[in-house]
Design goal:
Glycosyltransferase family 61 protein, three-stranded parallel sheet, 13 helices, 2 domains, alpha/beta, Rossmann fold, six-stranded parallel sheet, 9 strands
Length: 317
Amino acid sequence: MQQLMLKFLYVVASLRYPGIRRDLRYFVRDNYYARLNQLRFIGADYFTKKPYKVVDYHGEFDQELRYVLPFAYWHHLNGTLKKTISCTNTKEFYFFSEQHVEQYEKRVWQAGYGYYDVPNMTHSPTFSYTKFAQVPFKKQYKNDLFVYSKPILLIANKYNIEWDKPPINFLGIAELDRIISTYKEKYQIIYNRPLSTQIVLDNSEIMDLNEHEWIRKQHPEVILMHDLHEQHKGSVNNFNHLQLLVYANTDRFISMHGGTAALASYFGGINIILSHPGGGMEHHFNEYETIFPSLSGAKILHAKTKDDVFQYLSEHY
């Protein structure tokens, strides 16, 4: 029955979006099916309204942020959330869950395929916001610890294998030097590029950009998240907890395609996202104008090139 319905929904997606590439219609099909799957829970969600929903996910971090967390938080507000299950060091993301289990030690990107338990489960030209609620990370984690004499500009960089190819979406040392030199007088710049020992990995191998020591020597006024983690190990539970605390005090972000961009979009303010065309599906479905702003109401500025990053910086920062 499921296979027949998926075939039917692929036809529906083809008729509704004839201009979309044939292979991309599978994403639309899957989102249609995920939304229809929610019809099974009408009684439990809107009439019985007792805690029953178990949200269990260990796929890509990006999908968890964009789709799973807002779904789980909706169930929390609805009074129907029973339990959440995710990866190591995710308790702080699910602060609202009365029973959260960190069951998985590694993310498996394939776990996102065929995962129809949430209304939005993959890329799409449209999203359902019926069971979608903004998770108030900024309100929950705003603090007096990470406060400085100048407002924070947070650079959330990455340097990973992307789609089995060398790094594409990242800021190199030359770009970092230009940004820091230009904006360090106005902002307290905090630089964040987590190491493999600090986060749970999926299929994206983290490579060495050799920028941390360079920043320490050339721009000692910049605060490194690595150093903050060492300084505050006694007061933060893990690296994710630290990120939430620092991000909650921040209104200006520069982030990279993927989970880095999704997390920075959770805290309002302005988020410049570097995401080159030709890689992720966000471009095909215009998601930087749909799902990303919906995570917190943040202003999302999609930079398709590094030059775009500097243009947005000059206009908005």
